[in-house]
Design brief:
The chain is of the alpha/beta class. The chain is built from 21 helices and 13 strands. The chain has 3 domains: 228 residues, Aldolase class I (TIM Barrel, Alpha-Beta Barrel), CATH 3.20.20.70; 104 residues; 63 residues, no CATH class.
Length: 460
């Protein structure tokens, strides 16, 4: 508990590590609105250890961005250690991501898809704990049973974990199947271990924070989506979305980040406004925006549209047409995005499946069943048969000089691509039309080889 109290300052309001979303400008905005501890986005340990540019961008910080925890993902203890040693002077702790449930984590074999490999995780945590000068923490998801979740937490603590974040969902609870996090698992872990435990999941407003701390006994709560839709959550405020949006852009001017990050944040801040059918054009414009001027212009357009309602100069009554009759607050205010429950999603999927089974079947002129896409193509051909015949007759004359394949229209040697590549390889040629550069690359290889040999001779 000394680490949580003395090093971190006993934070209770924490912003989660979020890929492409918890970058420096957003962390600074979150701290302004009451966040007491922030994490970097999840960083790939192997890339971090090898790529200096990736490393410098990932470690971007400033004096007011403290305390900060750097989070890594990976499955190789030695590579994780290498990355942690490079980051240890820039943070208060190193966190190991054992909770990411996304498909990319499954493909890369990290995050929540390591939670069944306890010997590997024990080795990883113990190695980092013994070699890295800052504390090692972990972020995990629960198992189906409380008993296994508690045993999992105890194993990580025995390996050297100094603080544990427990997400009250399983790794299968994601996307439309997210559902509610079960705080009972967090409470069970908190009662079973003697290190600080943070609760993650179901934090959409400050009332959730208070209730979670009381029910779980956790030292703090962590929020991700709740923070993205309302960065002022920890201050019990629901500001008009253009206020944090413009403040965020001011921070981006000072600490630049990729345009995709900015676009993602603005889509979430203005989610409820952009969901209004009449604002679809603004949604399209935001999706196409690729410079700060465009982002500011769109924010100010929204501000000019809704500020009269916010200031009371006009009366907002258009809840039905705006498709926001279920919102507690007007759509221009920062507020949570509440997903439909998994049962509703499964029911909708079943209904769609039944509709697909009753879909109209299409047949060609010979009575063979075909797809709707094929049927549309046949209809287009039927409307312009002369054009098809002219194209077919033109193409039929353009054959490769060595085989029956169609001729590459820009090929220097009047060949298809396969025959062209073979000819260039055998005869040491280039073909600009097919972008086959055998001769050029061979000459470059000879040049570099001779240059290397001359350097070796000079050294000797």
């Amino acid at each position: 508990m000394d680490f949580w109290r003395d090093t971190l300052g006993a934070p209770t309001k924490i912003v989660a590590p979020m890929v492409d979303a918890s970058e420096l400008p957003w962390r600074l905005l979150s701290r302004k609105y009451g966040a007491q501890l922030c994490y970097t986005p999840m960083l790939h340990s192997a890339i971090f250890a090898k790529d200096s540019k990736y490393r410098n961008e990932a470690l971007a910080s400033c004096d007011s961005d403290k305390p900060l925890i750097v989070q890594f993902c990976g499955n190789d203890p030695k590579i994780m250690l290498e990355a942690a040693l490079l980051a240890q002077d820039h943070c208060s702790a190193i966190d190991i991501n054992l909770g990411c449930p996304q498909a990319i984590a499954k493909r890369g074999h990290y995050g929540a898809f390591l939670q069944d490999e306890w010997p590997l995780l024990h080795e990883m945590v113990s190695l980092l704990s013994s070699k890295v000068k800052v504390p090692i923490t972990c972020k995990v998801r629960r198992f189906e049973s409380v008993e296994k979740t508690v045993s999992y937490a105890k194993m990580l603590v025995s390996a050297g974990c100094k603080m544990l974040t427990v997400h009250g969902r399983t790794r299968e609870q994601k996307g439309p199947l997210t559902g509610l996090a079960d705080w009972g698992y967090v409470k069970a872990v908190r009662e079973a271990v003697d290190i600080p435990v943070i609760s993650n999941g179901n934090i959409q407003c400050m009332e959730d924070v208070d209730r979670c701390l009381e029910e779980t006994g956790a030292v703090a709560v962590m929020t991700a989506e709740g923070n993205l839709y309302n960065p002022a959550l920890f201050m019990r405020q629901n500001p008009p979305a253009w206020v944090p949006a413009l403040e965020y852009l001011d921070l981006v001017d000072q600490y630049p980040c990729p345009m995709s990050y900015i676009r993602g944040h603005l889509f979430k801040l203005f989610h409820h406004v952009l969901s209004i059918p009449s604002n679809n054009n603004l949604r399209i414009q935001l999706g196409a925006a690729n410079n700060m001027g465009e982002f500011r212009r769109i924010i100010n357009v929204i501000k000019d549209m809704y500020e009269p309602f916010h200031e009371g100069e006009s009366l907002w009554t258009d809840t039905t047409e705006a498709n926001c009759e279920n919102l507690v607050l007007p759509p221009w205010l920062c507020q949570p995005y509440v997903r439909a429950c998994p049962e509703e999603h499964l029911k909708k999927m079943e209904e769609n499946s039944n509709k697909q089974e009753s879909k109209r079947h299409y047949e060609d002129s010979e009575g063979n069943q075909i797809s709707r896409k094929r049927m549309k193509k046949l209809r287009r051909i039927g409307r312009r048969p002369q054009k098809l015949e002219s194209l077919q007759s033109e193409r039929s004359l353009l054959k490769c000089a060595k085989c029956v394949n169609p001729l590459g229209s820009k090929c220097v040697y009047q060949l298809c691509k396969k025959c062209c590549k073979n000819k260039c390889y055998i005869e040491n040629l280039d073909c600009a039309g097919h972008r086959v550069l055998v001769k050029t690359r061979r000459e470059m290889a000879k040049f570099h080889a001779s240059k290397k040999n001359s350097e070796l001779i000079d050294v000797s």
